[in-house]
Amino acid sequence: MEFYKKQPVKQKFDLKQFIVITAFFLAIGLMAYVFPREDFYFNLVAYVLAFGAYLWLVKMARKGDFSLKIGIVVGIVARFFLLFAIPTLSDDFYRFLFDGHLLLKGYNPYLMLPKDWLSFHVEESNEFLQDLVANMNSSTYFSIYPPLHQLIFGIAAFSGESLFWNIFVLRLILIGFELLNLLFLHQLVKKWNLSEYKVLLYILNPLVIMELTANLHFEGIVLACLLATLYLHEQGKKKFALVTWAAAVGIKLSPLMFGAYIMRRFYQMKQLKLFIGYAAFLLFITLGILLYRESYLNFWQSFRLYQSSFEFNASVYYLIRWISGFFMDYNPIVYVGPFLNLFALFLILFLSFFYRLDNGMDLANGMVWIYLIYLLLQTVVHPWYIIPAFGLSILTKNRVFLVWSAFVFLSYGAYDGVEVEEKWYFLISQYVIVFGFIINYLKKSLHLKSGLIHLRA
């Protein structure tokens, strides 16, 4: 157990710290403002520089040679430093903004394809909306973003038909949730008597800064909701903990996988009826709009398309696909994708009912392992997908996601050129290291006791 205590900190801000922090900002700035996604090797050098500076600052903080307050300020300033950047590593934001503007016009983004909407609503279409559709990567399928996601899109669209201001407002919202992540992490670190430097592991992580603030992904909001769930659980406010868990589901469906695990915790506290009633009601509130007309059918169609057609930066799936190539002459994703999801469901349910669950720390540790199972069995693993799991892992001794956050950036090597083509050597490098750390951690930590799986938190 690591104890929360004030570290002896040098009062003087020395030149070496200034140089490292300057290098950190330079690298982040180059990725956000200068290098396009196609310049992968320039981005990679900048990312390595930023990650090296990050590790050095965290190491110094752990030794007591770098102020926690200065580290937090650096992390916050780094986010506001990116306030005016147009996302370069991802183009998902075009769909975010288009859906938001449809909401403001009174249309349901689940009922019509973007290109079809432009065709059938010529009088309401304009150059701004046409540019959003032309630049998005999902104009041929229905929106796959859950209702609370859509609500935030609509808030950003209130700033008018301006790409800059829409991005600006969306980024301010995301930074606000990052501040909540900082708050909840700090509170949980104190509650569980953990070393205070752990907060810097999240707030200074370059992947977190780039994918959430620069590239406008919503995994930071999911993390804020899950951290709030843990915090409220520790405060004894179980009903409110269910509210924040349901909110996480309303942003991304993936937190549904924690349902059985959280239900078990409520069963231990003899509050199973409360869980079932509240969970059903809250999930209806957050997802109920999908029941309107054909919304749920179109949403499900896009979800199934995503699960059975798309592939990127996968691990177990790519291994199966490679092996199957010796026996069949077609891509087996339509069968393997759903099978892996069912297998993941089985493993998650097994872990949910047999994993150690005595307190809030066990709850956090179990959620990290559930995320790990889920991500390793997916056909698509974009870099930002691992961020909620990484944020939760800060509260444990599991450093698999910290390591993964260093190497997942290699997946952007697929964009090095005109055509998107994944590089096998980057995939192998990334997952050999990740699986190596998983095996090493399991060897050190896994043991069985009284029929339950115990992993030291």
Automatic annotation (TrEMBL):
Transmembrane parts of this sequence: 15-34, 40-58, 70-89, 163-185, 197-230, 242-262, 274-292, 332-355, 367-387, 399-418, 424-442
Q: Does the keyword Lipid metabolism apply?
A: no
Q: What keywords appear on the UniProt entry?
A: Membrane, Transmembrane, Transmembrane helix
Q: Name one Pfam family in it.
A: MptA_B_family
Domain of life where this protein originates: Bacteria
Protein name according to UniProt: Uncharacterized protein
